[in-house]
Amino acid sequence: MPLGWAAPIYDWYCPKLGLGPKFRAATIALAKLRPGMKVLEVGCGTGVLTRLAAAAVGPQGAAVGIDPAPEMIAVARQKAEAGAQFRLAVIEDLPFADASFDVAFASAMLHHLPPATKDAGLREVFRVLRPGGRLVVVDLDRPANPLWWLLFFPLLAWPMTASNLRGEIPGFLARAGFAPVVRHGRWLQLLSFWTADKGGAS
User: Fold this and answer.
1) Count of Cβ atoms closer than 10 Å to residue 19 Cβ
2) 66 vs 84, 165, 177, 183, CA distance in Å?
3) 3-state secondary structure 48-93
4) What pTM does this model have?
5) Confidence label for 11 from pLDDT (cuts 50, 70 and 90)
6) DSSP string of 119-130, one letter each residue
7) In this structure, is residue 153 part of a structural domain?
8) Distance CA 83, CA 110 (A)
9) Cis amide leading into 35 (omega within 30)
10) What is the span of the domain harbouring residue 96?
11) Is 174's pLDDT higher than 60?
12) What is the count of structural domains for the chain?
């Protein structure tokens, strides 16, 4: 479900939803980025996280963001900084060779995908990560606050979000081949952070 319509206001409204600099910093910290690493962000939007990753890995590394919305990629390219590249692509058909990246990010994007696309996309991310690589996921999870259920309960009828709200994201990650899958806490009692590793030599 591309969000091209939101591109002009995306960087304005995300912080107002609680997805500002502190949220981005918490996401980046879980990746344990080092200079020289190669990083992929799927569903990069306007590229905020991709640019932060590029700064963390330095000139010896690189960060690539992909998104299915041309409008998002256009804004991301306008704001691109050294080491950050942006491509129009979908998670279920990544245009990269096997074992191309050390780290991948999927931030607040899996809930836009129907279950079959979640499965296919996460298998693709697993494929392009090197052995020992890591995927960092932040997305909707079972609400920890009953008040959130009052707002989000209707989304249980929507295939794209139902699996998230039922707490099924770890299962999707495990089916794609990732292990271990570890949850690292919550954001706003609604989103969860997970790391999912690809076994093998680091």
Assistant:
1) 19
2) 11, 25, 22, 24
3) HHHHHHHHHHCCCCEEEEEECCHHHHHHHHHCCCCCEEEEECCHHH
4) 0.90
5) low
6) HHHHHHHHHHEE
7) yes
8) 25
9) no
10) 4-197
11) yes
12) 1
Element (H, E) at 136: strand 129-140
CATH number for 118: 3.40.50.150
Amino acid at 60: Q
**Which amino acid, residue 171?**
G
Q: Is residue 202 part of a domain?
A: no
Taking a C-beta distance cutoff of 8 angstroms, is the pair 76, 86 a contact? Answer: yes
- In this predicted model, what pLDDT tens digit does every residue of 77-115 receive, in sequence order? 998 888 899 999 999 999 999 999 999 999 999 999 999
Q: Which residues pair with 183 in a beta bridge?
A: 194
Q: Left (φ > 0), alpha (ψ -120 to 50) or beta: where does 198 sit? A: beta
Q: Is 10 domain-assigned? A: yes
Reported as a single tens digit per residue, the pLDDT across 21-75 is 898 999 999 999 999 999 999 999 989 999 999 999 999 999 999 999 999 899 9
Residue 133 lies in a domain: yes
Q: How confident is the model at residue 8 (pLDDT cuts 50, 70, 90)?
A: low
